[in-house]
Amino acid sequence: MSLDAVNAFINNPAYHDVLSIVKGFRNGLVYGTKIRFPHALVMTFLFRDGSIKEKMEIVLKATKTHARNLAFFVTIYKTLMLVQRKLCDGKELSAHSFLAGLVGGYFVFGKNTSVNKQIVLYVFARVVLAVAKLPARKGLLPREPPQAYPIFAALSWGAIMWLFRYERPTVHSSLQASMQYLYNDSDHWQTLRNFVWHNK
């Protein structure tokens, strides 16, 4: 098949909806790799023990999980959106995106892994901030309260500091490690060397 024939095929409106699902899968793989690989590389080499080979295996596993899960979520979401539109004579209802996201979220991100947890918590924080803006967008308030974000930030940090200090086992292990380094390890030193250069 020639390149012109391939271009004609992928630009045929009859195949657009299905091909958008295929491209969504591709974009999920690419985006997940771009996001996770540098993050996992830095965090693993800074804070994990083990050989270079062991660390690279951790990095590649986290990258694979993130990319695969995003690719599958996009595929499920776009497929369910297409099916729902077909069932509604080509019309998209506002509930469609919620239902497609609900199903994709359950089946892809419902498994309790460290990568999934980071993604879901990131999304949850964005949901909370977005919902805080809804009353102004819907005309229930004249404008978004200027203190909405500072209050959200203050409550988040106040809550996590209390939990770390008094209910530490409830805090995720990676956050515990970060907070241990920042707040508890900085209480201890014996020499100028481990005061300035090395932590311990």
Task: Explain how this protein is built.
This protein has helices at residues 3-10, 16-47, 52-87, 94-109, 114-137, 148-166, 173-184, 192-197. Helix 2 (16-47) packs antiparallel against helix 3 (52-87) and helix 3 runs antiparallel to helix 4. It has three domains: 1-111, no CATH class; 112-145; 147-189, no CATH class. It is flat. With 200 residues, it is mostly helical.
List the helices and strands and how they pair.
Layout: H1 3-10, H2 16-47, H3 52-87, H4 94-109, H5 114-137, H6 148-166, H7 173-184, H8 192-197
Helix pairs in contact: 2-3, 3-4
How many domains make up the 3D coordinates?
Answer: 3
| SSE string | HHHHHHHH
Separation of the first and last Cα atoms: 64 Å
Number of helices: 8
Proportion in β-strands:
under 5%
The residue ranges in which pLDDT falls below 50 over 5 or more consecutive positions are none
- Compute the gyration radius: what is it? 23 Å
DSSP strand count: 0
Per the principal axes of the C-alpha atoms, what is the gross shape? flat
Could you say which structural class the secondary elements and strand pairing correspond to? Answer: mainly alpha
Reported for the largest beta sheet, the result is: none
Query: Percent range for helical residues?
Result: over 70%
Mean pLDDT: 93
InterPro entries: Pmp4 (IPR019531)
Protein name: Peroxisomal membrane protein 4-like protein
Organism: Thamnocephalis sphaerospora
Please outline what is shown here:
This protein has 200 residues and is mostly helical.
